[in-house]
Amino acid sequence: IMKNITNTHCIGLFGTCGSSKWRDHFISRYQDQGISFFNPLKPDWKPEDSAIEAEHLVNDDIILFPITSETFGTGSLAETGYSILSAIRSNDQRFVIIFIDPKLATELHQENPTAGKESSNARAIVTAHLKKVNLPNVFMVDSLDKMLELSVKLYKVASIMADIKKEFK
């Protein structure tokens, strides 16, 4: 579930939790390429684990924050802005990658039309505001595939930057 507790070149897999499987493909790719990551999703999560999550949110080189269609995402959408500000304030050299699926899964929308409408509105509002964020290290992508590809590239960039800082300190 977690690699690299020391946070040296680490990708934090935040965003949609619950029964979501979006992390599976990312973790497989990262393991194949020897990329360190933190996965906050664990079957026996306890409130004490929130401290570990907070450490990773503050220290990981790259923070991923997808909001998928498989959840109303109310909490995640609210957390997105706070998380980005926290990540950038603690280290303005890190990277943040955001994906907000514009549509809620049809079955969720049909299950609860009021929550579905609120989720759709919140997705549109948060996306519009985030597109106005003009920071060179915050990226909005339009798919999980693009998020994965960009995270792998930025991991290489973070590794190179760390090597340069070490060498020329």
Please give the structural blueprint.
Layout: E1 10-13, H1 22-33, E2 36-38, H2 49-59, E3 62-67, H3 74-90, E4 95-100, H4 106-111, H5 113-131, E5 138-141, H6 144-167
Parallel strand pairs: 1-2, 1-3, 3-4, 4-5
Helix pairs in contact: 3-5
Your description of this structure?
The protein has about 170 residues and is of the alpha/beta class. Helix content is about 55%, strand content about 15%. It has 6 helices and 5 strands; from the N terminus they run E-H-E-H-E-H-E-H-H-E-H. A 5-stranded parallel beta sheet has the order 2-1-3-4-5, with helices on both faces. Strand 1 (about 10-15), helix 1 (about 20-35) and strand 2 form a beta-alpha-beta unit. Helix 3 (about 75-90) runs parallel beside helix 5 (about 115-130). The longest helix is centred in the C-terminal third of the chain and has 24 residues, at about 145-165. It is globular, with a radius of gyration of 16 Å. Mean pLDDT is about 85; it is low at about 1-5.
